[in-house]
Amino acid sequence: MMNNLLRFVLVLFLVNLAAAAILAEVYTVTRPKIEAQKKMAEAKALKEAMPESVGNRLEKVEDGDVEYWKVFKDENYRPSGYVFIAKKYGYSSVIETMVGMKRDGSITGARILNQNETPGLGAKIVEILSDKTLKSALKGLLSRKKEPEKKILPYFTEQFKGANVKNIDISDIDAITGATISSKAVVESIREKGSEILNAEQ
Amino acid sequence: MKKFFHELNKGIFIENPTFRLALGLCPTLAVSTSIVNGFGMGIAATFVLLGSNVIVSSVRDFIPKKIRIPCFIVIIATFVTIVELVMKAYFPALSKSLGIFVPLIVVNCVVLGRAEAFASRHGVVKSIFDGLGMGIGFTLALVLISAIREAFGNGTILGLVIVRSFEPALIFILAPGALLVIGVLIGIVNYMTDRCYTA
User: Fold this and answer.
1) Taking the CB of residue B128, how many other CB atoms lie within 10 A of it?
2) Distance from CA of A57 to the nearest CA of B (A)
3) Burial (CB count within 10 angstroms: exposed 0-12, middle 13-18, buried 19+), residue A64
4) B42 inside domain
5) B97–A123: do the CB atoms touch at under 8 Å?
6) Smallest Cα distance from A34 to chain B, Å
């Protein structure tokens, strides 16, 4: 009896030890790659949310739990705009959106950074719709003529451009069909965080 | 050789995990909304199946019967975590669209089912073919289901719009549509199998 118990403990211990060792190795190998991917995605989102941020000075502000960046266009001491990450729980995950806005609160761009919403429904907030149809794609394959790639943008977040963070509302934009909760979470997170920053700055 | 081929073959049709064994339906319902997602999930599950089958069958004499399930779960979870990390590092887009369902392969009953019902009772080579066959069967089933759901529910195939004038029926993307599609496909596959084996 005692012998058996000891054997069980030992076997389980060995199995777990081996698993932990293998995972530690895989983790150390993949971690820098994962970090790099995350940085790349963030840099791309920053560029798209705030085109002016490229080549200009960014200053990080941490005020309690409010965290954002000021963008300085020239040597002015007044920032020309702000970039912040808005977070809110959607349908099945926390949706993180990177948003750029001007001093008056009008949005220059928004990109979803992280989400784990339902594939095919809520996850459509990041969807990029191809402008090709099956027919035109097949035609393009057959003719071998390379057509210039058009830049296609995620249609959901593109709608936010020009809206003001102080009064943006779900009724102003086209929500994703069947995913009202996810759509609403994005809009509300932007309004709440954006207004908070504007209030703190003024 | 013929014996091994049988193990590979049975997972694809006669004992197809989705249509014949009705295992792993939860991820099938959840990710079969687009062909890319279905295929990615299928490949990830195949890798986990293959890995866990190899390890389970090679350590089966060393693991006492009474604690075999926790041991299997640890082995499966290890492979799933490897898949998750590698996917995050090298295929970030796929990892983002599959989201929570990659870690959930741990509790995919196809994987545990094969470890318990096959790999813990057979040799390594046979288990490799079994895992491969089941994985391919699972992937094919997922691709078939997601092709139908994507075409009717989203109006696209591989992200390309089929006909602009077609207004997609959202129900096919939602869970009820998945159940309808899986139910009809199970019916067709069972009817065909019956006819093949009774005639």
Assistant:
1) 18
2) 29
3) exposed
4) yes
5) yes
6) 4
In this structure, the answer to whether residues A184 and A89 fall within a common structural domain is yes
**Quick check: A143 pLDDT over 80?**
no
B48 in contact with A, Cβ within 8 Å: no
CA atoms of A73 and B144, how far apart (whole Å) = 53
Q: What is the DSSP string of A152-169?
A: ---HHHHTTTT-BTTT--
Q: Write the pLDDT tens digit of every residue in B140-157.
A: 999 999 999 999 988 888
Angle in degrees, CA A127, A40, A110, rounded to 5: 45
User: Chain A partners of B156 at a C-beta cutoff of 8 Å?
Assistant: 130
- Whether A100 and A9 map to the same domain: the answer is no
pLDDT at A1 over 70: no
Say which DSSP state B106 is in. G
Range of the domain at A3: 1-43
A20/A56 same-domain check: no
Residue type, B7: E
Contact A166, B158 (CB under 8 A): no
**Does B176 contact chain A (CB < 8 Å)?**
no
- Report the domain count for chain B: 1
The stretches in chain B having pLDDT less than 70 are 199
CA A115 – CA A93 distance, rounded (Å): 6
Amino acid letter, residue A150:
K
Note whether B50 and B138 are within 8 A (CB): no
Is B26 domain-assigned? yes
Percent of chain A with pLDDT over 70: 93
ipTM comes to: 0.78
Number of domains in chain A: 2
Domain that includes residue B119, residue range:
2-146
Cβ(A147)–Cβ(A121) under 8 Å? no
- Chain B touched by A137 (CB under 8 Å): yes
Contacts of A130 in chain B (CB under 8 A): 156, 159-161
Q: Distance (Å, rounded) from C-alpha B72 to C-alpha B78?
A: 10
| Residues A14, A94 within the same domain | no
Backbone angles phi, psi at B130, to 5 degrees: -65, -45
Per-residue pLDDT tens for A22-37? 999 999 999 999 999 9
Closest residue, chain B, to A123 (C-alpha): B97
Q: What is the mean pLDDT of chain A?
A: 84
Q: Name the pLDDT band for A75 (thresholds 50, 70, 90).
A: low
